[in-house]
Here is the input.
Amino acid sequence: MYKSFSMELAGRTLTVDVGRVAAQANGAAFMHYGDTVVLSTATASDKPREGIDFFPLSVEFEEKMYAVGKIPGGFNRREGKASENSVLTARVIDRPMRPLFPKDYRNDVTLNNLVMSVDPECSPELTAMLGSAIAVSISDIPFDGPTAATLVGMIDGELIFNPTAAQKQVSDLALTVASTRDKVIMIEAGANEVPEDKMIEAIFAAHALNQEVIKFIDTIVAECGKPKHSYESCEVPSELWDDMTSAIPSDAMEAAVFTDVKQVREENIKKLEAELEERYAEEHPDWVPLIGEALYKYQKKTVRKMILKDHKRPDGRQITQIRPLAAEVDILPRVHGSGMFTRGQTQILNACTLAPLSERQKLDGLDGNETSKRYMHHYNFPSYSVGETKPSRGPGRREIGHGALAERALIPVLPSEEEFPYAIRTVSETMESNGSTSQASVCASSLSLMAAGVPIKRAVAGISCGLVTGDTDDDYIVLTDIQGLEDFFGDMDFKVAGTHKGITAIQMDIKIHGLTRPIIEEAIAKTKEARYYILDEVMNPVISEPRHEVGKYAPKILQIQIDPTKIGDVVGKQGKVINRIIEETGVKIDIEDDGSVSVCGTDKEMIDRAITIINRIVNDVEAGEIITGKVVRIMNFGAFVELAPNKDGLIHISKLSQKRVEKVEDVVNIGDEVTVKVLEIDRMGRINLSLKDVPQEKAGEPSK
Here is the structure.
């Protein structure tokens, strides 16, 4: 039965149609927020997938170009693989919802969000987050929801909820907060060095608004919700658990996991696994396939107990202690800038590349305001970084997500295009991984940008906090700088990047049903303390400020401004003028519609020469100027000198020399470079030049 529900949300109407479309999905919500339309569906398989030890959730965010009245580019003229924005949005939808499905649920679940119409005033990403939560909540799929999400911007210190596209352009904050009924379950933020107390205020203002949305969703579920279906549990049998824990006492498991060397711990667990396989091979062969999951559960219980009750971390550190840190620059001699950051067994080597602005990344998506970006951060995670072997298949969703997080953390400190007219790419290569490589990427990128001579405002560092909780809200412990094992068996990965001035990025992943305010405040405080330590004690001693100029292997770029009406003169018919300048000087020239001209090359002298030629083209010649040009034509009455493309002047034979000249070729020939004085520009616009009137000291100098 078709039903429609509406509420006012941040000044715009949110409408949810149930039963109107996609009736064969387990749950479907046809979402309208303003003129933005997203179809959110939730489907689940009838039976669990065999042979897996995880919940197989898949989230999709499909951008259709018809939603903004465009035909896709490319040969096929249809949408291809998911854009970076689609991948990042799918991850944001996934993170708050995944913890609310049963942990022993093994049925395949797909959450699909089809963007069908986009209103710039109403975010399709937010609409999809709400739509997915509603679709699952009204379906028969087991889910301990609902969740709600709010976007928060900040303009002149004032918080804006679910900002419009125009507001996002001038906002100092791009915060997404997802909540359950009682707690915050996901935080994602990019910020212009926002202070910690302001960030906390924004998070809980969004959390309060989320409660209004959850009440709205509850009314939909009450009228349209299906009973949740039963499922086949994949819990470890109690008999196996009891026998395993008697065969491997708790002190033996503690000894196996209590080491700061990942490889040693993995080897210890392999030995225990082999012992159990031998123990059950004959009498309980049905238990053998379950040993891996049983050992995982035993490790998790052991690590959590050690941390929460004994305050012992697997590598022996104190609760707030950071692993050994190291920073270096100039590792790679020929790249434009490089930096390496090491934290324990996590190590990132970052390379920075500078290029003309024409090499900005072009974006073809639903956001019409952003068609390109000049800063690109890419993150790679090869299998050798964790001691494994598998072929490289290009960046996956994790790599794209980690790269975007580090990119977001660094954008607020980058110089403007006017200050530094370069496209910038940093690439983080994971050399070794054991927890929070994304935040090590932030540190390594900051180092390599400064080493490359990019005048960033301040250095940026990142760190991650973990969490282990007990049976009550006030029974918890927050860990500074979690390693892989603590992330794997813990409840939270709370990543915060920023400068001495404030936060630039946050990403919070959790595995439980939300966080209380005291936990969030403690995590933000601990990451601030750790961030300051990294900046002051580790990064600043290596490189405390950006180098004052780009390296010798980096391109040099000079920028000038010309009258936009003169752009055609510089380009010339079919590009002949600009191509000739490029051929003559070896530079690269980019011209924007507003008259900004960027000249890029490795030879400063050639850059200056190209700029001189451009200035001659666009600026009128004035009487009295001393200019250097090339003789291009000789007549019996004088020589024509090219002062700039399509701008010639005449040296009359009487002006060639102080002495009498019988023949023009006695003084100059075609191809000669000569320094001349502009005598006059007559009323017909003709330029008359003199060679003999150039002061002797100026005769050999190039024109200014």
